[in-house]
């Protein structure tokens, strides 16, 4: 990247951010969804964040966002040094610590070279595969088509069970301890998904057996996340049904594309997602400290 100006964006800058993120739609669903919820204002509320932008001729050419939950999401095409320069600006403006890093693998790798995080012990540092699916090509599992298994929207009464499942998800995914703090995070996550209509429950013979949600959503595209099947229901295709059922709902609501990511070593999940029609499109990175 040539010489650029660095600016912390704010209220009124949403159109320029949206225009930049629109050039990389599959890589920026978190950012675009957060921007739709909270704008470019960082006031501590859920989905809000600090956006440190590189501008050339007043046009955004790179962004490092530092969100309310401590996650950093970089998108700086030149990578390397420029990622770290923008991260300096984002950290100075947000005043937060870095809890995690999410984005394309090369962007995550560049972020991990920043002095603030270099050498820190990570709870999870995973290279993942980013998958995408045009929803017209969704392959619906037979069990769902036949009605043997159903997928329904989460209800108020589901919150205690799904919060408990979310705790186990966080423990398995990020090696978090089973503490009151983890429980609070889990309950807040599930409650937010429910309030926004982005949470679904799979039932078999009237019994909840799996959960899925959209961790980001726009009218035309959704990002699947938080898929969880408790141990008693694993290896029975429930996760695949969960994802398919939620995507059918999204398609009915007007969405035409879905993305998700999973660990490069998680062959079972990759097979399940490929069976639904997903194809890999990029390398992804997920770090949590």
Description:
With 289 residues, the protein is an alpha+beta fold. It folds into two domains: 5-120, 3-Layer(aba) Sandwich (Aminopeptidase); 132-282, Aminopeptidase (3-Layer(aba) Sandwich), CATH 3.40.630.30. The protein is 35% helix and 31% strand. A twelve-stranded mixed β-sheet has the order 1-2-3-4-5-12-6-11-10-9-8-7, sandwiched between helices. A hairpin with a 3-residue loop joins strand 9 (207-217) and strand 10 (221-228). Helix 6 packs across helix 7 (180-195). The radius of gyration is 19 Å and the shape is globular. The model has no long low-confidence stretch (mean pLDDT 94). Residues 149-289 form the N-acetyltransferase domain. One of its GO terms (molecular function) is acyltransferase activity, transferring groups other than amino-acyl groups.
């Amino acid at each position: 990247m040539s010489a650029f100006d660095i600016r912390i964006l704010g209220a009124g800058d949403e159109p320029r951010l949206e225009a930049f993120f629109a050039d990389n739609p599959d890589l920026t669903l978190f950012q675009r969804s957060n921007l739709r919820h909270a704008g470019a204002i960082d006031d501590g509320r859920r989905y809000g964040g600090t956006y440190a932008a590189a501008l050339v001729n007043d046009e955004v050419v790179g962004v490092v966002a530092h969100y309310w939950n401590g996650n950093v999401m970089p998108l700086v095409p030149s990578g390397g040094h420029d990622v770290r320069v923008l991260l300096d600006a984002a950290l100075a403006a947000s005043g937060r610590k870095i809890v995690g890093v999410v984005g394309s693998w090369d962007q995550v790798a560049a972020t991990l070279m920043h002095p603030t995080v270099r050498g820190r012990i990570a709870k999870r540092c995973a290279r993942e595969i980013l998958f995408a699916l045009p929803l017209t090509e969704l392959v619906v599992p037979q069990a769902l088509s036949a009605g043997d298994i159903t997928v329904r929207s989460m209800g108020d009464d589901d919150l205690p069970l799904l919060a408990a499942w979310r705790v186990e998800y966080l423990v398995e995914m990020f090696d978090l301890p089973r503490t009151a703090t983890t429980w609070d995070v889990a309950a807040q996550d599930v409650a937010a998904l429910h309030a926004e209509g982005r949470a679904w429950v799979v039932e078999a013979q009237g019994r909840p057996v799996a959960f899925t949600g959209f961790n980001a959503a726009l009218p035309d595209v959704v990002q699947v996340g938080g898929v969880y099947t408790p141990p008693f229901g694993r290896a029975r295709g429930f996760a695949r049904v969960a994802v398919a059922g939620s995507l059918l709902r999204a398609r009915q609501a007007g969405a035409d594309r879905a993305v998700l990511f999973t660990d490069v070593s998680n062959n079972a999940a990759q097979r399940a997602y490929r069976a639904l029609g997903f194809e890999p499109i990029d390398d992804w990175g997920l770090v949590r400290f």
